[in-house]
Amino acid sequence: MQILHVIENMDESSGGGATERTRQLSIHFARLGHDVTILTTSFRLSKSAQEQLHPIKIVALPILLKRFYIPWPSFLKVRDAVRTAEIIHIVSHWSLVSLIAYFFISLYKKKYTVSPLGALPIYGRSKFIKRAYNYFFGKKIIQNASLSIVATLNETPAFTDLNVNKEKIIHIPNGINEEDYMIKAGSDFRDRFGLSDKPFILFMGRLNRIKGPDLLLKAFNNVKDMFPDLHLVYIGPDEGLLESLENYTYLNGIEERVHFLGYISREDKSRIINEAHFLTVPSRKEAMSIVVLEAGIVAKPALITDQCGFEELEEVNGGYIVTPTVDGLTNGIKDMINIDNEINALGSNLKMLVSKNYLWSSAAKKHISVFKELIDIKDENR
Q1: pLDDT in the model for residue 68
Q2: Domain of 337?
Q3: Contact of 114 with 87, CB cutoff 8 Å
Q4: Nearest to 244 by CA among 205, 193, 209, 204
Q5: Predicted local distance difference test score (pLDDT) of residue 67
Q6: pLDDT confidence of residue 48
Q7: Do 60 and 96 fall into the same domain?
Q8: To pair with 114 at 20 to 30 A between CA atoms, which of 4, 50, 198, 276?
Q9: Shared domain check, 144 and 121
Q10: Does residue 235 contact residue 267 with C-beta atoms inside 8 Å?
Q11: Does residue 232 share a domain with residue 194?
């Protein structure tokens, strides 16, 4: 099968969950014997990153404006990528790459699926531009898709608001590879990152308002005197909040206990997750969080908000779910710390859930089954 992924950003340091999902699915599709192409932009796309994805073909459009991922419209490249594909999978939503691809998808009457991954609601900056995009193009891209694939059922209302029939919505959750998280910290790990030997709670994600790092920092400040040995570690790229977060730590005298490590390698991420006391996901809005799975696969529990689309966390007693507020996170941190020795049991519970139900190998096979069914329907109609 010839599969085409369409996504505007394949940079691991800034692309977030959508990039990771596309990367992992592409790798597993290739392992299953399928020909995979990724249509994207050249934004921070290094040669080494492309080599790591071999034998997956990368069609990267030159980037003209980084903020909005505006590409040079290489129509012939896009045309050829779409024309040779048997099935196209559009990832995320606010994307000119997707729009250009959609033009050729319509021209050649190709079957395609969409996975906005929580991006459909108009939220954050550039709301006027997003409304205009939806009015002229975005709604059509979603409504005309053969199927919509969601990572969490919490995404469903955003589709039904656009008059997408629920029968055209398929739920395939995110996954994880256990072998990616087997690297543990050596004796020099904490010194290398300027961390003490004290316990720390972990935030993994973009420093963006939607991810709630500011809420977590204020909650940590509320509990700093109750747990004087506790530290807070952030890993992930800055998207406009780093300066204000750092200023907050100085104003409240907690700069020695809060650590902003920025983007780190996959190997170091494995080391730091294995060292963390527990994970926090303070998101104001989120499709299913991959970082919860990353914590779970190494038997670390998680404290998440009720916007993360992962209610199973509490169902299996793998952590706590709170409201996306400073008070909610404050109480959640206190509850997680106060269970003391029981925290290891929560981590074990979460690991069992993740190992059983959330592997990328299983998610890839489910996608392939969906794609084959769509192609078979097309063949029958010829």
Answers
A1: 63
A2: 179-357
A3: no
A4: 209
A5: 67
A6: 81
A7: yes
A8: 50
A9: yes
A10: no
A11: yes
Q: Which two tokens stand for residue 159?
A: 């589709």
Q: Per this entry, what is the length of the chain?
A: 382
Torsion of CA 180, 182, 188, 192, to 10 degrees: 20
**In the sheet where 319-322 sits, what is the strand order?**
258-260, 231-235, 200-204, 278-281, 302-305, 319-322
Residue 379 tokens, joined:
């063949």
Nearest to 137 by CA among 182, 89, 102, 88: 102
**DSSP-based three-state secondary structure for 260:** strand
Pairwise CA distance, residues 324 & 185, whole Å: 31
Q: What separation in angstroms does the CA of 353 have from each of 31, 191, 358, 367? A: 24, 33, 8, 21
Residues 138 and 192 in one domain: no
Q: How far is CA 44 from CA 66, 154, 196, in A?
A: 10, 31, 33
Paired with 61 in beta bridges are: 41
186 and 244 assigned to the same domain: yes
> Cα dist. 240→1, 18, 237, 243, 324 in Å?
41, 20, 9, 7, 20
pLDDT at 17: 85
Please tell me whether residues 348 and 312 are part of one structural domain: yes
